[in-house]
Amino acid sequence: MRPSKRAADEMRAVSFERNVARYAEGSCLIKFGETHVLCTASLEDKPPMWLRGQGRGWVTAEYAMLPRATQTRTRREVTSGKQSGRTQEIQRLIGRSLRAVVDLQMLGERQITLDCDVLQADGGTRTASITGAWVALHDCLKWMRSRSIIRDMPLKDHVAAISCGIANGEAVIDLDYVEDSAAQTDANFVLTGKGNIVEVQATAEGAPFDEQQLQQMMALAKQGIGKLVDMQKQTVA
Fold first, then answer.
1. Terminus-to-terminus CA distance in the chain, angstroms?
2. Where are the beta strands (DSSP E) in the chain?
């Protein structure tokens, strides 16, 4: 029995709320159970310096956890003068995931930054960030098209993410913190709406996992991400 009493293939309650940030071109508050992430999309009318003059744009991301997103206060990274390796790794993952489904040529010489701020953490913050950031990005691009900044939507597909793991010898989906901290294997899957793989991160925390267990986690991830993509479609409809 999982600590949350959920079935192995049962995700936490998921919700999307759009237009929660007044000044952002796109925004979404996403909740995976007790994990809550605010995702905003901000448009800049110029690409990064290294991309200027090439006729295409860029999509990037920044990720942060608020000091009381967890049970004890975490010092803001800005006060220490540098980001942790974990923060850098997560925001690069978010950026890669969103760029995988955007036609950067159609975006033109512009940059969209996805800011993913964790208001409350209970496991799966990176996967929630990716899933919610897609909605914020969609609404930013829709805002641009409504103002004739772009002619067509550069989005090629949906993208969403979910965590899976091996807990007590069983493949399970969408681990919360209690389950994740004790799991033998921790994995994150990023897939497109068509089911294509953007990224898979899988690490044995205890005993190594075998190919069959990896396939079991992949099957759970495909099922869960299919549901998340359906929810994204309903949210932006």
1. 37
2. 14-18, 26-32, 35-44, 58-65, 111-120, 159-167, 170-173, 185-192, 197-204
User: b/e per residue, 174-202, with b = 16+ CB within 10 A?
Assistant: bbbbebbeebbbbbbbbbbbeeeebeeeb
Specify the pLDDT at position 146. Answer: 96
What is the rounded CA–CA span in Å between residue 90 and residue 137? 17
Q: How much is the pTM?
A: 0.96
Convert the pLDDT of each residue in 120-161 to its tens digit: 999 999 999 999 999 999 999 999 999 999 999 999 999 999
Residue 163 dihedral angles phi and psi, to the nearest 5°: -95, 150
- Stretches in the chain below the pLDDT threshold 70: none
Tokens representing 48?
């990064």
Q: Tokens for 140, please give them.
A: 């930013």
The C-alpha atoms of residue 151 and residue 129 are separated, in whole angstroms, by 28
Instruction: Please check whether residue 3 is in contact with residue 178, taking contact to mean a CB–CB distance below 8 angstroms.
Output: yes
| Contact between 187 and 174 (Cβ < 8 Å) | no
Phi, psi of 69, deg, nearest 5: -70, -20
The 8-class DSSP code of residue 12 comes to P
Which residue, among 67, 64, 139, has the nearest Cα to 94 in the 3D structure? 64
Strand order in the sheet with 197-204: 170-173, 159-167, 185-192, 197-204
Q: In angstroms, rounded to a whole number, what is the distance separating the alpha carbons of residues 224 and 213?
A: 16
